[in-house]
Amino acid sequence: MSGVTELVNKKTWAVVGANENRDKFGYKIYKFMLNAGYTVYPVNPGLDKVLGNKCYASLRELPVKPDVVDVVVPPKVGEQIMRECAEIGIKNVWLQPGADGEQVVKTAEELGLNVVQACILVEARAHGIGLDLYK
Fold it and tell me: pTM of the prediction?
């Protein structure tokens, strides 16, 4: 099972729940990861673009399989995302606070997914990633 440090150091991510609303964590996380040098894909069925980049309606539509999927959606949507990850062979899921409902975690574990429950913004900084973005 992969831990926080291993996942933070993976370079290809998808952010499910990425959006254009500057007040939402889906926006803050996607923007931070882009600026910190990650290859990151926004996933949101309601948007065509996020920060000028193509936004994908689902994980299945991504041009590559990400190393990690960061989930920034309500738990009722999160369970479906866990199933989609398992179906397409994505093993690492990062559940942001608020997206990590008990049933989401249970579903992920039952599907054999590696689950991290933490805020990527906090953990990346704790690992020295993106610190220059806050100066």
Answer: 0.95
